[in-house]
Design goal:
The complex is a heterodimer of chains A (about 250) and B (about 400). By secondary structure, chain A is an alpha/beta fold. Chain A has a single domain (about 35-65, about 70-235), classed as Rossmann fold (3-Layer(aba) Sandwich). Helices cover about 35% and strands about 30% of the residues of chain A. In chain A, the strands form 2 sheets. A 6-stranded mixed β-sheet of chain A has the order 6-7-8-3-9-10, with helices on both faces. In chain A, strand 1 and strand 2 form a beta hairpin. The radius of gyration of chain A is 18 Å and the shape is globular. Chain B has 2 domains: about 5-50 and about 275-405, no CATH class; about 80-260, no CATH class. Helices cover about 55% and strands about 20% of the residues of chain B. Chain B has helices spanning about 5-15, 20-55, 85-95, 130-135, 145-150, 160-165, 210-220, 235-250, 265-310, 310-320, 325-360, 370-395, 400-405, and strands spanning about 60-65, 70, 75, 100-115, 115-125, 140, 155-160, 175-180, 185-190, 205-210, 225-230, 260-265. In chain B, the strands form 2 sheets. Chain B has a 6-stranded mixed beta barrel with strand order 4-5-10-7-9-8. A two-stranded antiparallel sheet of chain B has the order 2-3. In chain B, helix 2 runs antiparallel to helix 12, helix 9 (about 265-310) packs across helix 11 and helix 11 runs antiparallel to helix 12. Chain B starts with a helix and ends with a helix. The chains are: A alpha/beta (about 250), B alpha+beta (about 400).
Chain lengths: ~250, ~400
């Protein structure tokens, strides 16, 4: 069922030239991601995690190997075509949220649609509102990022990733800046989105977070050392409920 | 990305840092305001010079003796005596484009009345001078007649400055005898005040007399110093001056190879000379102001570079969610042009205001032309594009990965 495959990576290699030395960040990575999967990519620093993420996000192209995103061979595309692909097929969620300062939540969410000339101003606004409602921020449309908590900001970022109706949401340490309670609630949101059929690729170094996904790819020294489904997948909502509530929190 | 979106994004970016945007704009504002007001001053003075010259009778033609070569030495015009009454008569007879011709004899001397005396100029002319050539009205008394001219009558008409100095008590000079040098002259009329000329000469410091009187009784010469003529209208001034040249050459019996021994100057030429002088002034002022606009442009460039560096992360984000290089380029370019155009609008308003203030407080004539406004806008736009392009291009060439991780 190759139509079902959102991502197909075959023997991806990526080399960087640092002066006279050649650094090989990825040394032949292969795996597929099917539609509706919730995949975590794990690895310690220096494992090639970031390089793989950049490749998956079409920000970088592999030196060798084939990467098909929704059936499109990324290696053959130019800069502008990559930008279009990112706009149409990928929703990014970053560790530092990367919201535009002094710009309302609504306008931040509208941003990806601004780069899609086919969408009218009216439709853009409607979709942004729907997207914010999907992350339970329907009442915070006009708030500026500095008026929102970290968790809320990350939810705005998720709404922004959703607004283009991408084939995949690519999250880079999306809970890295949040306390555990908030990060569990973000994970609960991501699990909900996954349950609605969104394909999610989540890059993290925390095994705790990885346990919420249904499959984990482990990287080490630029190679996949483990690729297995999660046997005991946890529900973030349950974990959140089981946390002790403290008065001063 | 549509233009409206670009515009909105640029506006938002500028709103985020209002003070900085304003300070950047200030360079352009000062530049444009100085261009507008300086050019207005230049244009205004040009126009006022033209107006003053027209007031003197812009259809006036002046014929002077030209410098002449005598025994190999080129002599200065005042030493040359080539104009005669025959020339005047020839011009009166043969030039259809001329409405009036008069000899003009001028000399300086001491005017005396009672125990007052005043160093002034006596100008000898014929009866056409006041009415047709200078269009100058009498305040009191009468003009001299053709009979006075023929008889070299000892009569004169006084200008206001002369009256003030010779008759400090306010007596009516008409009917009194004054002396110019040794020649007694009966005052038959007084002139209205004409004020300073465009060259700063006091036009009222004059005594008018029949040219024959000056020629025969004061200068004792048969030659004429100048001939003034008046074209029928301004449009035919050039034709008239050509005509004058031809008649004069015949009258002086010059061979085709000979140089003119006279010079014909029209006020038109004078107007042109002054126009080109003040044109030069305008260009000079515009260049100086243009330099300040250039400095303003460099200010924009500087701030745009700062802005690109500062917003590297934003650029990375925009690229990661699908902005192409050209989108980023246009975004920053729009921002730069928005700064320069807004600065331009404020600058134009400020320039017009300061031109008005200059006119109001210093009573310098100013003229704000549409072309200078249009030009300023154009220059502003070009400044914005030119100085905004390099920072914008630098932004568009950023690597999204590095831009995203930029701290």
């Amino acid at each position: 069922m190759s139509e079902n495959k959102i991502l197909e990576l075959k023997d991806i290699r990526r080399e960087f030239r640092m002066g006279s030395e050649i650094v090989r960040a990825l040394k032949g990575v292969s795996f597929d991601v099917k539609a509706g999967e919730f995949l975590t990519i794990m690895g310690s620093s220096g494992s090639g995690k970031t390089t793989l993420l950049n490749t998956l996000g079409c920000l970088d192209k592999p030196t060798e190997g084939t990467y098909l995103l929704d059936g499109v061979d990324v290696r053959k595309l130019g800069r502008n075509e990559l930008a279009k692909l990112r706009n149409h097929k990928i929703g990014f969620v970053f560790q530092a949220y990367n919201l535009l300062p002094r710009t309302s939540a609504l306008e931040n969410v509208e941003l990806p649609l601004m780069y899609n000339p086919k969408i009218s101003a009216k439709e853009r606004k409607e979709r942004a509102i729907r997207s914010l409602e999907a992350v339970n921020l329907g009442d915070r449309l006009g708030h500026m990022p500095n008026q929102l908590s970290g968790g809320q900001q990350q939810r705005v970022a998720i709404a922004r990733a959703l607004v283009n109706e991408p084939v995949m949401i690519l999250a880079d340490e999306a809970t890295g800046n949040l306390d555990s309670r908030t990060s569990f609630s973000i994970m609960a949101l991501i699990q909900d989105l996954n349950a609605q059929g969104k394909t999610i690729v989540f890059v993290t170094h925390e095994p705790d977070i990885a346990s919420f996904s249904n499959r984990t790819v482990m990287l080490k020294d630029g190679k996949v050392i483990k690729d297995s489904p999660n046997e005991n997948r946890r529900s973030a909502r349950d974990v959140l409920a089981s946390l002790p509530t403290t008065e001063d929190y | 990305m549509s233009f409206i979106n670009l515009f909105r994004i640029a506006l938002k970016a500028l709103q985020r840092n209002k003070l900085r945007a304003f300070l950047t704009m200030l360079g352009i504002i000062i530049g444009v305001a100085s261009v507008i007001s300086m050019v207005a001053i230049g244009q205004g003075s040009k126009q006022s010079i033209q107006k003053q010259l027209s007031g003197m009778g812009s259809n006036m033609i002046i014929i002077r003796p030209n410098s002449n070569v005598s025994a190999g030495a080129r002599l200065d015009a005042t030493t040359v005596q080539t104009l005669t009454m025959d020339d005047v008569k020839a011009l009166q007879r043969e030039a259809p484009h001329l409405s009036a011709v008069t000899p003009v004899m001028t000399t300086k001397g001491q005017a005396i009345y009672g125990n007052n005396n005043w160093s002034t100029t006596i100008t000898g002319v014929n009866t056409q001078y006041l009415d047709i050539i200078r269009q100058w009205a009498l305040q009191d008394g009468v003009e001299f007649t053709d009979r006075d001219v023929q008889g070299a009558a000892k009569v004169c008409i006084l200008g206001q400055t002369v009256i003030t100095n010779l008759f400090p008590n306010g007596d009516n000079p008409v009917g009194k005898y004054i002396r110019f040098g040794k020649v007694p002259l009966l005052v038959i009329g007084t002139l209205t005040a004409k004020g300073e000329s465009a060259f700063g000469q006091d036009q009222d410091d004059v005594i008018l007399a029949p040219y024959t009187t000056v020629q025969e009784r004061i200068l004792s010469t048969i030659y004429l110093q100048n001939i003034y003529a008046s074209a029928v209208d301004e449009a035919s001034t050039t034709a008239a001056s050509d005509e004058v040249s031809k008649i004069m050459r015949v009258s002086h019996r010059l061979k085709p190879t000979d140089d003119d021994d006279f010079a014909v100057r029209t006020m038109q030429e004078l107007i042109n000379t002054f126009s080109s002088t003040s044109q030069l002034l305008t260009v000079l002022l515009a260049v100086i102001s243009g330099i300040s606009l250039l400095v303003g442009g460099i200010g924009i460039m500087n701030i745009m570079y700062v802005s690109v560096t500062e917003r590297t992360k934003e650029i990375g984000l925009r690229m990661s969610i699908g902005a192409r290089g050209v989108d980023i380029l246009l975004q920053f370019l729009t921002e730069a042009v928005l700064i320069s155009i807004t600065g331009g609008i404020i600058g134009v308003l400020l320039g017009i205001t300061s031109a008005r203030l200059v006119t109001y407080f210093l009573s310098w004539p100013t003229l704000v032309t549409e072309s200078s406004i249009l030009l300023s806008f154009l220059v502003c736009f070009i400044t914005g594009v030119f100085f905004g392009y390099y920072p914008a291009q630098a932004a568009s060439r950023l690597d999204p990965i590095e831009a995203l991780r930029y701290e």
